[in-house]
Amino acid sequence: MQAKVFISRDLPQNGISALEQAGLKIDVYPGELPPSRTELLKRVKGCDALLTLLSERVDDELLTAAGPQLKVIANFAVGYDNIDLVACSKRGIAVSNTPGVLTEATADHAMMLLLATARRVLEGDRLVRQGQWRGWAPLQLLGVEVSGQTLGIIGMGRIGYALAKRAKAFGMTVLYHNRSRRLKAETELSVRYVDNLHNLLSQSDFVSLHTPLTPETHHLIGQAELAVMKKSSVLINTARGPIIDEQALVEALKTATIWAAGLDVFEREPSLSAGLAELSNVTLAPHTGSATRQTREAMARLCATAIIAALKGEAAPNILNSEVFSS
Ligand code: DGY
C-alpha cells in the first residue's frame, strides 16, 4: 500500500516533489497558518510519516492520534523543542531535523539584527517614510559603534560559530559561554571562553543567544541577568523566544537597564508581551532567521530525504534518534 505523508504547511515545491517522486501519497495542509490542534489530530490519522513545523506540538496525544504505523517525523527546523523525542523513541518513531543548512542564513540574520539595532535602522526608516525627516543633523538617531566592541555569544554551536566569524570580520572582540569549551573556535577565531554567564553578560556590549530551548535554558536571561548587563548593551535573540523572560526584557528596555534589543523570536509566538511593540529601542522580526529561498529549499530537501530513507528502514544523517533503527 502507498505510504502516506502529512505535511503541516505549504513548503518549497522541491521537498513535495521529492516525496511524490518516491511514490508517497502526500496530504499538504495549505497556506501559511498552522492547522488547529483538532484539525492536526484528525489529519495525522493513518499517516506513515509526518513533516511538521515548530508550531506543531508532537507529543503522546499526537502520536496516538496518528496510529501505530507512524514511522518517521521530519521537523522542518533545526530546533526540535516542539517534539517529545523520548515519546517518539519509545514508539520506535524516527525523528529528524535540519541541521547545517540554515547556519549561514541564521548567522546573517543575527548580524543584521545586531547592526540594524545598533544603528537604529528601523527608526530611521520610519522617520523618512513618514515624511518627518528634516535633513542631516549631527545629533540625529545616534547609535552605538559595532567595530571594536565586545560580542558575547551564548551557545557556541554551528550558528554561534558562524556569527563569531562575522563579528570578527567587523573588528569585534568575541567572548562565548557554552556548556563545554570549543577549542576549534578558540584556535581558529580567537574567541575567549567565559565560564560564568554573568561575567560574560557584564563584559559584553552585544549579547547574542544561540542555545537550543531546553528546561535548563528556559528564561536563561531574566531580570537578574539583564541587571548585570551594561546599560549601553544590546541583546539579540534568533534562537528561541522562551530563552528570554520577555516581560522582564520589556521592563529592562523601558527602564534603560539595557540600551536595546533585536528579536527574531518571541516567548508566545506570534503574540508579543504587553508593551514590546510600543518600544522604539527594539528591532522586531517575524522569526525569519532561516527565511531565504535557498535555505528553505535545502530544509525541504533534508526533510524529504529523511522521510524517504526512514520509510525504507534506513537512517538518514539528520535523524536525531537513529537508535530506533536497531531496535
Ligand atoms: C529552526 O530551524 O529551528 C528555526 O527556528 C526555524 O528556521
**CATH architecture field of the largest domain:** 3-Layer(aba) Sandwich
CATH T-level topology of the largest domain: Rossmann fold
Low-confidence stretches: none
Main sheet: strands, sense, barrel: 7 strands, parallel
Query: What is the element string, with H for helices and E for strands?
Result: EHEHEHEHEHHEHEHEHEHEHEEH
Summarize the structure in words:
Helices cover 35% and strands 14% of the residues. The strands form 2 sheets. The protein has a 7-stranded parallel sheet with strand order 8-7-6-9-10-11-12, sandwiched between helices. The protein has 2 domains: 131 residues, Rossmann fold (3-Layer(aba) Sandwich), CATH 3.40.50; 182 residues, 3-Layer(aba) Sandwich (Rossmann fold), CATH 3.40.50.720. It is α/β, with parallel strands linked by helices and 327 residues long. It has 12 helices and 12 strands. The longest helix has 19 residues. α1 runs parallel beside α12 and α5 packs across α7. The site of (2R)-2,3-dihydroxypropanoic acid (DGY) has 7 residues, from loops.
